[in-house]
Amino acid sequence: MALEQLTDQQINFLTNFVTKVPGASGAGDAAAAAWAKLQAALEPRVTAALKADHPEATKIRGAWGMALDKAEAGDAEGAVKIGQRLEALLGTEAAASDIPTNVVAFQKSRIMWISAKRDMQSGLSNFRKAVADQASDDEDLNDIVKAADTLVAEFDAFDTRLEDQLDKITQTPEGPDRTKLKSAAKAALSEYMTTLNGPFFSMIDSNPFVSVNVAGRGRQSLSVISAALS
Which pTM does this prediction carry? Predict the structure, then answer.
């Protein structure tokens, strides 16, 4: 389908979409802003953790140095990814009051998240196909298809950390080990929610090409799991 055959709503969506997807125009500025915000939040926590001889001090020091090096080299996106992993390391100091007592809730949460990811991935695939079908006859829309492909690839951000931690929680007796697992699950959940609230995922459910419930499905599932982790 040629560009002139698209509706104004579709054209406006695609224009905004391309500028907000990572790797497309404007993504560098967004990554730099994200790193600046994350750096400001992490720096005092890293300093405090190292002064307190955090059990993961060596890893924290190394990750922080790598993130700073990435940022200095102009790779803000890489710095953000390392910073997000660093948040998980810093989050291993959960309080004893956070120890879960109901393993059934965490078993159900794990199944819920796996199911949600399956639905989200299906929705992304449907979106990519719908955009590709619209753009298939117009070389000027190649960037649109590439942006859609980038968004589909961004689904890899939803790795297996959360379900892995939830599974380990149900198999670990109450105590310091379970506390660390719960804290790691919270860190992964927070990272996923941040990804879903980003500019490109926040657009997907309102796209004018095909009805999908990607970000909404993910947020709903993560909100329920967050309550179980509280």
Answer: 0.56
